[in-house]
Every structure is written in structure tokens, then in C-alpha cells.
Design brief:
Length: 213
């Protein structure tokens, strides 16, 4: 299913600009995060100085409002930066999982083909052995022996290929299971972070409503 989704022509057109767009958004979020940190430090120091100086309430409330907005921007830009990186990692894991599933299917087909070929050669070998036991001509017997030896070599070669393909199949299956497990863990962490982000957003909205009142 994921392979069909990622095979859309739209993704191949966007792939050329995807890395540039990702880096651009990362740089923009980093700039916003650093600017929010600077604003928080700025208004935090002003807030302390004005509180110590006992200035009028309107100026103090204005400084508190600026401090609250800078803290809100800090949280939003920080969570956006982190969630954008999580999204990038999730897309990478899904792509790897789709490739592993395709490789798994190809290896399974190859194993089935090798098994069928080995059965075919073994059946031919049995027929040659039956023909050898029923005929006493020495020349035909030598020819049959040579053919039998050749078939045995081919069978051994196919068995080796089958073993190699089976090992690659089990390895790909293990890697696919590991990628799937890592993807599930990342998805659970993403859901947990989204719940925390929603709780923080509700707290910020409540605090902003109190400021407006």
C-alpha cells in the first residue's frame, strides 16, 4: 500500500525540491526559535527591572503581555521545529519499510522459482536413473552417467543458490520487522508529544483569555 502511494508521479516531481524545501523550513524555524529566545530574555530582564522600580501598572502590564507573547512564540517555534524533524524521520522510516516490503516480495518470488527448478531437475534425475537401470548398453550408460553427473552439479548449484536466497530472504524479513518496530515506537512518541502540545496550547489559550479579561 505504501509502495503504491509513494509511486505517484507527484512525489517524483516534488523529490527534486523536497530537500531544499526541508532545509529552508528548518532554517526558518531555527531563526524564529532563536528570535523567540532573544525576546524572552529581553522582556524577562525588563520585567524584573520594572517590577523592582515599582512603575505604573499599565506599563508593567504591557511588559507582561510582551513577555507572555514571546514565551508563546518560543513554545510554538520549538515544538514546530521538533515535530517537523519527527515528521521527516517518520517519512524516512515509511519509505524504508516500503522498500523492505518490496524486497521481501521479490526474494520470496525468487525462492519459489529456485524451488520449482530444483524439483524439476530432481524429477529428471529420477527418470534418468530409471532409464539407466532398464538398459544395458555401455555407451548409453556412459552418456547417462555424464548427464547424471551434470544434473547433480546443477542440482548442487541450485541448492546453493536456494540457500543463499533463503538467507537473504530471512535477513530482509528481520530488517523489515526492525524498521516496522521502530516506526511503531516513533508513532507512539509522536502521539504523546501531540497530546502534550495540545495541553500546552490549552494552557496558553487560558492564560491569554485571562490577560484579555
Amino acid at each position: 500500500r505504501w509502495q503504491k502511494i509513494f509511486m505517484f508521479p507527484l512525489w517524483s516531481k516534488m523529490a527534486v525540491f523536497w530537500n531544499k524545501m526541508f532545509l529552508t523550513i528548518i532554517v526558518l524555524l531555527i531563526v524564529l526559535f532563536l528570535d523567540a529566545v532573544r525576546e524572552v530574555r529581553k522582556y524577562s530582564s525588563v520585567h524584573v527591572n520594572e517590577k523592582a522600580a515599582n512603575v505604573n501598572s499599565s506599563a508593567f502590564d504591557h511588559i507582561q503581555m510582551k513577555l507572555f507573547r514571546s514565551q508563546r512564540n518560543l513554545y510554538l517555534s520549538g515544538f514546530s521545529l521538533f515535530l517537523w524533524l519527527v515528521l521527516r524521520r517518520t517519512v524516512t522510516l515509511l519509505t524504508q519499510l516500503a522498500k523492505e516490503m518490496a524486497s521481501h516480495a521479490a526474494l520470496e518470488t525468487q525462492v519459489n522459482d529456485a524451488t520449482e527448478a530444483a524439483k524439476k531437475y530432481m524429477a529428471e534425475n529420477e527418470r534418468l536413473q530409471e532409464a539407466l537401470s532398464g538398459k544395458g548398453d555401455s555407451k548409453k550408460k556412459e552418456s547417462t552417467d555424464a548427464t547424471e553427473a551434470k544434473l547433480k552439479e546443477e542440482i548442487e548449484h541450485l541448492k546453493a543458490e536456494l540457500q543463499k536466497t533463503s538467507n537473504a530472504f530471512h535477513k530482509a524479513k528481520t530488517e523489515g520487522a526492525a524498521v516496522k518496530k521502530q516506526s511503531e515506537s516513533l508513532r507512539r512518541e509522536y502521539d504523546h508529544l501531540m497530546k502534550e502540545f495540545e495541553q500546552l496550547q490549552q494552557r496558553l489559550n487560558k492564560a491569554e483569555d485571562k490577560k484579555d479579561l
